[in-house]
Amino acid sequence: MSLYSRRGVSAQKEEVHQATASLDKGLYPFAFCKIYEDFLGGDAEWINIMHADGAGTKSILAYLYWKETGDISVWKGIARDAVAMNLDDLLCVGLYDNLLFSSTIDRNKSRIPGEVLQAIIEGTQEFFDELKKLGVGIHFLGGETADVGDLVRTIAVNGTMTARWPKSKIVSNEKIAAGNVIIGISSSGKSSYENEYNSGIGSNGLTSARHDVLESSYGHYYPESVEPMLDKDVIYTGSYKMTDLVKIETGEEMPIGKLLLSPTRTYAPVVKAILENHFDDVYGMIHSSGGGQTKCLKYLPIPMRVIKDNLFTPPVIFELIRQSSGADDREMYQVFNMGQRLEIYTSPSAANTLLDIIKSFGMDARVIGRVEASAKKELLIDVGGNQIGF
Fold first, then answer.
1. Cβ–Cβ < 8 Å for 24, 37
2. Helix, strand, or coil here: 370?
3. Buried-most residue among 167, 186, 215, 241 (CB within 10 A)?
């Protein structure tokens, strides 16, 4: 078993998919999110979506950093994670405006005081205010905050996003086909609408990252941050403290904790600009979240071969995790986005136009690969000249 599996998590969520196998797949079974008829409005030309996601175990990293430094601002980052993980999933089916959001926060009151809740809730609204200025409208409709210490050891921050949308403006992934090229958008750096460097980590694989990178003392001083049934040899096996400094791509230094806690970048302003002006050139979109660079395999409409042979050089945070864990390339690219979290399938003739739009937002982007005909659904990833097949 991989370290990831031994820590009680799954990059591919096999058991979850098995449990939901008999459920309705929605109107477009290959779309990134489930899409249903317009139950709310009763209009055959519109659809409904309700999507749920959250910050995952990244909240434990915020807890550790806050306990060590007293910096409560990290909780505002967790609020952004919970929103962006919902929003960027919905972007992949074409939605980017007039969305409704409801938060769900479960906390252990004995460890998470009211000031932390306040930071999360205020951070959510601040994020929405920023997005509104960028033309992305999300309405905050409150939610549920529950004190459930018997269930939650620290805190879980999640949310649900809902919308009605014109059926004619849906990206269903059904147009993905041989001959497409794949545009990848970097998850790291500093976009025109971000205030600081983003490590690119997102909100997936943080259980593995936390235990691989941080030193054993965290398990001793903060036992509430660990599943008690885990084997001792997979708990906080790294050599770093949260406040240890690491040199990033710009030559500056940042604390390890801040790299791990970089808020999940939303691509909403970029996708909005693309879809409003070049909707017909977008054949499919994939949010490379849980499952990393293999996520695309779940949404291919027919058998085909996806080749990714021009991916970005992984940002510092991923190399740090790789060195600390000893994980091979196969596991790294299945668990983490490795520096590319959103991919767009388009025609070769439209690629440069879309790339120019993306780069105008201060983000690195490139054609990372292509789609070929095949008798089965398969993925080939080139890493340093070595080809990994999935």
1. no
2. strand
3. 186
| Coil, strand or helix at 382 | strand
302-361 pLDDT per residue, tens:
999 999 999 999 999 999 999 999 999 999 999 999 999 999 999 999 999 999 999 999
CA distance 323 to 81: 25
Q: What share of the chain is helix, strand, coil (3-state, %, to 5)?
A: 35, 25, 40
Query: Which token pair is 235?
Result: 């708990």
Q: What is the pTM of this model?
A: 0.93
Choose among 241, 230, 281, 188: nearest CA to 64: 241
Question: Can you tell me the distance from the alpha carbon of 390 to that of 276, in angstroms, rounded to the nearest whole number?
Answer: 34
Q: Which two tokens stand for residue 369?
A: 């690969």
Tell how many helices (H) and how many strands (E) occur in the chain.
12, 14
User: Scanning the structure block, which residue is given the tokens 């306990």?
Assistant: 67
> Tokens standing for 159?
């949310």
Q: Are strands 378-383 and 304-308 parallel, antiparallel or unpaired?
A: parallel
Between the two ends of the chain, the Cα-to-Cα distance in Å is 17
Structure tokens at 141: 């409709």
Amino acid making up residue 363: M
Pairwise CA distance, residues 48 & 58, whole Å: 29
Residue 37, classed as helix, strand or coil, is strand
- CA proximity to 4, closest of 14, 158, 309, 61: 14
Mean pLDDT of 362-381: 98
Q: Is the pLDDT of residue 294 over 60?
A: yes
